[in-house]
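pasting for the record
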Amino acid sequence: MKMRGKLADFSIDFKTGKQKISFILDTKIDNLDEIDNIEKLDIEAKKHREKRSLDANAYCWVLLGKLSEKMGISSKDIYIMEIKNIGVYEVLPIKEKAVDKFIEAWQNNGIGWPCEKIGKSKLEGYINIKAYYGSSTYDTKQMSSLIDSIVEDCKLQGIETATPEELERLKLEWK
């Protein structure tokens, strides 16, 4: 069962000393007996984010295709350059002997998940890796930056793009 809501209360049970968290749910639970019979739950609470607009994603790939055609570079390579340009990444120290395996595993997340060695870590026997997150994880602000970057590159190449109003509509669909 997956639900949306917001944190309502946080307290401590004085009998057990354990923490208690209460939520206010956006939707009504029809069958309370079903919940009453559950003995243990795996619980995950995270900040809500709307799913990204498929129109915005599709438009990015249309523009990447046009850039690819104009520049003679694969749309995949341009996409990776754009991802690196936006710069949503983590610097991670990885054991030297595990670096290649880590990079391979990270990049298996998708084509927009590049990973690169950036040098020796302060930790003995470790290499620092810059691991970029793909746009599938981007919030509205990050995706807007990606779209703006791709549009700017298109303009520099003389490629026609959507009007500013149309671009704004695509970005707003992320909210």
